């Protein structure tokens, strides 16, 4: 990422063409269509949540990499931003999982 | 930023100098804001998941037609606005002011369309007695989380539309540089990104099972 970004730095802002962004846009639409199709199929809830969150993460990665140009920035910027964000969200989930699973099991069936 | 300044940044790579990331301070500031804002939305989404798991008989009110069809169309509008935004940023760096402003206006129109469609959905829900503090299914937390999440997102889109309008006006007049357009683009893409989580988690997981 870093080397690539460096090599292209002088043309940094001309990286990415209509073709590239159009392709990313089509992929995002296809993934969205897949999500809606899955909702229509009415899968089992746990499977559904896993697939939907997984697809959303892929879409988020596509948007950040290409639309937000993170792919063309230095590796340093990526390392500054993304690990800290992922770490904080994991910390929230550490609070979330034990308690929510316990509550789910306490629920009358 | 002038070409000479830009060259200076390239030289200072990893030297611990002024610009280790080779970006201007506006862009770094926007990125840091985006990280902090993403945590706000994460907290809201996680608390939504929590109350949903904890509540028996969580309502699933959205029919494929019209609610899911409508929100899918809203997703399409927002994704398309991201495409016009990124093309606008590209045009801005190529120095094509007219084209940039045109792309930005297209983005603004998509943003307004998104808010308008969303507003009609809210009005329909209000008409059915679903409000932020109560609903016919006896689970007031549904409204609290639904309107809290979508409302905060809608607020972001509305602010984004105003932000882009100011940037488009200033860039058209030659007051702002391409960097300003790029930084406003980062914000806009982030708003799009957040919807990529709200749409499946709030709408697609609440499809009426009947």
DSSP summary, beta strand count of chain A: 0
Instruction: Decide which structural class fits the backbone of chain B.
Output: mainly alpha
> What sequence of helices (H) and strands (E) makes up the elements of chain A?
HHHH
How would you name the oligomeric state of the polypeptide chains in this document? Answer: heterodimer
Tell me the structural class of chain A.
Answer: mainly alpha
Mean pLDDT of chain B: 90
Measured distance between first and last alpha carbons of chain A: 50 Å
Average pLDDT metric of chain A:
84
Low-confidence segments of chain B? none
Enumerate how many helices of chain A there are, as a single number: 4
- Percentage of residues in DSSP E strands of chain A: under 5%
By CATH, the topology of chain B is: Four Helix Bundle (Hemerythrin (Met), subunit A)
Number of individual domains of chain A: 2
Rg calculated over all Cα atoms of chain A: 19 Å
Distance between the termini of chain B: 58 Å
Radius of gyration of chain B: 20 Å
Most extensive contact = A-B, 55 and 56 residues
**Content of β-strand of chain B:** under 5%
Total domains of chain B, how many? 1
Concise structural overview:
The complex is a heterodimer of chains A (about 110) and B (about 210). By secondary structure, chain A is mainly α.
Explained architecture:
The complex is a heterodimer of chains A (109) and B (210). Chain A has 109 residues and is mostly helical. Chain A folds into two domains: 1-73; 76-109. Helix content of chain A is 78%, strand content 0%. In chain A, helix 2 packs antiparallel against helix 3 (45-67). The relative contact order of chain A is 0.11. By secondary structure, chain B is mostly helical. Chain B has a single domain (24-206), classed as Up-down Bundle (Four Helix Bundle (Hemerythrin (Met), subunit A)), CATH 1.20.120. In chain B, 76% of the residues lie in helices and 0% in strands. Chain B has helices at 3-11, 25-54, 64-93, 97-127, 140-172, 178-203. Chain B is elongated, with a radius of gyration of 20 Å. Chains A and B meet through helix 2, helix 3 and helix 4 of A and helix 2, helix 3 and helix 6 of B.
């Amino acid at each position: 990422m870093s080397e690539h970004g460096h090599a292209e730095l002088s043309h940094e802002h001309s990286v990415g063409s209509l073709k590239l962004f159009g392709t990313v846009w089509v992929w995002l639409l296809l993934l969205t269509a897949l999500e809606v199709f899955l909702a229509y199929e009415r899968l089992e809830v746990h499977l559904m949540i896993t697939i939907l969150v997984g697809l959303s993460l892929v879409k988020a990665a596509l948007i950040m990499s290409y639309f937000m140009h993170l792919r063309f920035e230095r590796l340093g910027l990526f390392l500054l931003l993304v690990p800290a964000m992922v770490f904080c969200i994991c910390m929230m989930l550490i609070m979330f999982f034990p308690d929510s699973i316990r509550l789910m099991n306490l629920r009358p069936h | 930023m002038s070409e000479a300044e830009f060259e200076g940044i390239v030289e200072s790579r990893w030297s611990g100098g002024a610009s280790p990331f080779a970006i201007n301070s506006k862009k770094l500031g926007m990125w840091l804001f985006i990280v902090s804002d993403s945590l706000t939305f994460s907290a809201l989404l996680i608390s939504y998941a929590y109350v949903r798991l904890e509540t028996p008989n969580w309502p699933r009110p959205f029919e494929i037609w019209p609610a899911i069809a409508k929100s899918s169309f809203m997703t399409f509008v927002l994704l398309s606005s991201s495409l016009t935004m990124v093309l606008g940023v590209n045009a801005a760096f190529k120095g094509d002011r007219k084209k940039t402003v045109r792309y930005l206006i297209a983005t603004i129109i998509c943003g307004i369309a998104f808010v308008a469609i969303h507003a009609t959905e809210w009005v329909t829900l209000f008409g059915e007695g679903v409000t932020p503090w109560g609903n016919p299914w006896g689970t007031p937390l549904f409204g609290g989380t639904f309107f809290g999440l979508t409302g905060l997102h809608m607020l972001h889109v509305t602010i984004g539309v105003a932000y882009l309008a100011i940037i488009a006006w200033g860039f058209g007049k030659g007051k702002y540089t391409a960097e300003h357009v790029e930084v406003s683009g980062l914000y806009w893409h982030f708003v799009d990104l957040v919807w990529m989580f709200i749409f499946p988690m709030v709408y697609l997981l609440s499809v009426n099972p009947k």
